[in-house]
Design goal:
Elements (H helix, E strand, L loop, with lengths): L14 H14 L3 E4 L2 H6 L8 H4 L8 E3 L2 E3 L2 H15 L7 E6 L11 H14 L13 E3 L9 E2 L2 H4 L15 E2 L6 H4 L23
Parallel strand pairs: 1-4, 4-5
Antiparallel strand pairs: 2-3, 6-7
Length: 209
């Protein structure tokens, strides 16, 4: 993730493959679908050591000033960084559709029900306003509808060699999440949903009037 967003650039090795795709999208009036996760920008410190409020849309004001554009949240910065990266390749007529974004409710740093609710509610309230570079609605899809309790995961104990191996003894068993006590060890992968697998609501969110 590039901060400031105007420095956005695709990796050199991807450019020969991306450019014809982007040119095709521009010719056909189709959008580029991008999965953008401020949560991972924060936890992997991909944009440096930034406060979580910038990720959750709760910063009091501008955090990143990029020329004439001021950024209060990482979502806008991420979308505009993608636009800047396309423009570096000579493509300016392709919209960005955010095909996945969200915040985990358990299993990792700053992963909580409250932060997940805050991120997703603020996201829904915000996307209709657009970004500093593109002040119109950003089509966006929240990940995900349900927690994925059967999603496979590799436990810490297995990685350290203190648990079962596969039947042929060649590697760790990948086990589904079985109980709440496994939540922390399992990490964030199972815990992005607005609903539990039994359809109970995890937290309330308003999607519009």
């Amino acid at each position: 993730m590039h901060v400031p967003p105007s420095a956005g650039e695709f990796a050199d090795e991807s450019k020969p493959f991306l450019l014809p795709v982007l040119q095709f999208l521009e010719c056909t009036g189709s959008p580029l679908l991008a999965n953008l996760y401020p949560y991972f920008v924060y936890t992997y410190k991909a944009a440096g050591d930034m406060d979580v409020s910038f990720m959750l849309f709760t910063a009091a004001g501008t955090v990143v000033q990029d020329g004439e554009y001021g950024y209060q949240n990482m979502f806008d910065a991420s979308v505009d960084a993608v636009h800047a990266a396309m423009e570096r390749l000579g493509v300016s007529g392709v919209d960005v559709v955010v095909s996945e974004t969200g915040w985990p409710l358990a299993g990792g740093e700053e992963a909580s029900v409250e932060n997940a609710r805050t991120y997703n509610q603020n996201l829904v309230s915000h996307v209709g306003k657009g970004t500093p570079r593109r002040p119109w609605k950003v089509e966006t899809y929240v990940f995900s509808t349900f927690n994925e309790n059967l999603k496979q995961w590799q436990s810490v104990k297995q990685i350290l060699g203190g648990a079962k191996t596969t039947r042929d003894g060649q590697g760790p068993v990948l086990s589904p999440l079985r109980s709440a006590t496994d939540l922390k060890e399992a990490g964030v992968e199972q815990n992005w949903g607005l609903f539990y697998p039994n359809t109970d609501k995890v937290y309330p969110i308003i999607f519009g009037k």
